[in-house]
Input
Amino acid sequence: MARTTRSSTRSEAMALALAEAEKEPERRASKRVQKVSEAKRRRQEAEQIAEQHHIEEHMALQRKRKREEQRLAAKVALEQERLKKKQKQQQIKAAKNAAQKQKSSKASSKKVEPLKVGLVTLSDIKKGRGGGPSGLFRVPSKAERDKVYRETEKAIAKLEIAQIPPHGGRPWKCRVTIKEANACTSNKKIKGKASKLSKQGPLFRWYRGKLELACLPNIIEQIPETKWGRLMDDDELGINTNSLEARKSTSLTEAAMEDPNQPIIDRVWVSPLHETFRTRKSAMENAAKLSDRDKLIDKMVYGYGAKGALLRPFKPTRKQSLEAGLYKFLRDGLWVVGQEESWQEDNLCEINRREALGLNPSTGEKKVENRYLRPVEEFMLSKRDELRNFRLAKMTECGISAKDQKYAYKDAHKELREIWREMSSAERDVWRVDKVGYALPIEGMYTAAATVVPSCETPAMTAISDVSSTDSSIPCSVPSKILSNPLQTIDIKSFVSPDQEKSKPKKSIAKRNPAADVGRTCKIFHIETDTWYQGRCTGYNAETGKHEIHYTKTIVEEVDLKECKCMWDDARIITESSHWRLKNSEIILCYDAIMDHYAKVMHTVSARGLQYELADGFDVLRERGRGRYDMEVPAFSNPQFDFLTSPDAPWTEVVKTILGDEYSLVHKGAFLSLPGSSAQI
Output
C-alpha cells in the first residue's frame, strides 16, 4: 500500500514538472513582448519630450528673431533719418558756400585798399589820441612799448594761474615775458630785410584813452582751458570791465593778429614747491600730481573727501599714513605724527549732529525729500538682492564652494533687465505709476503699485509657467551659463509684484538691555541749542523707557535715547594705532628722566637768580614761552635709553620715509609743556 502511494506521488510530481516545462517558452515569450513594448513606450516618451523641447526652443528662437527684426527695423529707420538730415545739412552748407563765393567774387572785383597803419609819438600818448584812421598804429618809443608789455604780461599770467589749483593754499606762479620778433632773431639777413616799421614793434590800439597791445584779446582766447577750468571768478581775480583780462576780440584785433611782426610770448610755470616748468604739458602733469597729493592729505590728515565732503571715521593703514605724512611734510614742512587719527571723533560728532538736524551727513546741505526713479530702476533695486541670494543658493546646491561663487549686482541687473523685457505691460504697470514720466517717490511706490493687480495669463508668464525654478537640471556650475537664458531658471511670477516685500520675514535682532547703559558717560545732542552736552547715565525707567542723564550735580534730565542722538564715550570704534609709539614702560622711564633733569636745572636757576636768562637759554635748557621748555637730557645717552636711537626705534620708519636712508642723529632732547603754559606760536 505504501509503495503504491509513493509511486503515485512521484508520477504527479513528474506530471507537474512536465507541465511547467511546457509553459516556460510561453512565459519567456510574454516577457520578451513586455520588454519590447516597454522599450517602445520609453522611446515614444523620449520622442515626445524631445519634440516638446524642440517646440519650446523654436518659440524662444522665434521671439529672439522677432526682437532682432524690430531692432533692425528701428536701426534702419534711424539710419534713414540720419541720412536725410545729413543730406539736408549738405544742401544748406552748399547753399552757404555758394553765397559766400558770390560775395567774395563781388568783393574781389572791387579794389582792396591796404590797411593804413599810423605812428604815435610821445606827445600823442600823453594826449591819449592819434594813430591814423584804421585805429592800428605803431609806437616808435621802446620805453612806452615796454610799459605796455609789462601790463600785458601781468594780465596773461593772472589768467594762466587762475586755471591751476593751488597746493596747500599756495598758488602757482607764471612768469610771462614778451619779446619783439626783430630783437629775438640772430639772422642778419632777416634783420636787414626788416623794414623801418617792423623795428617799431607790433601793432597797438587805443582803448578808452589807454594804450594797449592790439592782439591781446586774441592771445587771451588762445589760452587753452585746463581740466579744472576757471577756479576763481572775476571778483576774486580783481577783473572788471576795464581790466585787460576782460577784452574781447573784434575785427580790429583780428586784423592785428595778421601782422607778421607779432610779439613772442614766453611762459615759465613755477609750482608751489618751487619747481620750474617751461612747457604747459609738464606743468599740467605736475599740477595734477600735486592735486592728487592734496586729496590724499585731506582724506588722511583732515578727514575730508575729494569734493570737501565730511568722511566717516576709518582707520588708516601704516602705508597710507606714511604716504600722506611725506606729502604733508613736502608741502608744509611739518607733519605731526599721529595727526591722521585726531579728526575721527570730531567728524563722528559732526556727522551725528547733521543727521539729527536732518541734513546731509557728508555735505551738511538740506536733504532732497523726493527722489524719483524710473520703473525699471525701481524694479531692479527691489529685486536684485532676492535674485542674487537665489543664485548663490543654487550654486551652493550644485556643490560650488563659497570662494568660487561669483555673482555680483551687475550680473543681477543684467538678468533683471532681460526679465523686464519679457514682462507684459500689465506686469510692468505694477512698477509704473506714470507711463509717460517717472515713477512716484520711493516712499509712495508700494502703496501706489498695490492698486494695480497683474494678470497671470500674460504671454511672458504663460511661456514660463511650465518651467520649475527648483529644477535640478539647471546648469549652475558656471555663472555665465546661468546668465545665458534667465527665463529657463527663474519663475517670473516671483519677480513681478512688489507686495511680496511686505510678507518677507524680518530677521530677528537680539535686543540690548537698556539698563546696561547705567553708569556710562555719554554726549547728548540737543536740537534746540545745536550743542552736544557731556553727561552720565545714572538710571533707567522701564515704564517710560527713558534714561536718567546727569549733566552736572544739579541738572538732571530724562532722555529717550531712541528719539535723540547719543554718543557713548566707551563706544569708540576706531582705536588708536600703535604705529610709531613707545611702550608704556619706556614712556614712564623717559618722563622720569625729563622731570628729574628739569627739577635740577630749575633748582640751580633759582639758587643763583638766573630766571631772566632763561629766555636767552642755556646749553641744557631754554624757555620757549611761559611754561614751555626745550631741553637736552644727558640721561638719554645712558645705555638704558638705547631704545631711542636703535635701528628698531618706532620713528625710524618715519625718518627714513621723509629724509631717506642716509640720515644721522643731530640732537636728542625733549619739549616740556607744563599745565597753564602759553600757546605755541
About this structure: Residues 263 and 487 are 72 Å apart (CA to CA). The chain has five domains: 119-185+193-278, 284-356, 375-501, 514-568, 584-673. The mean pLDDT is 77.
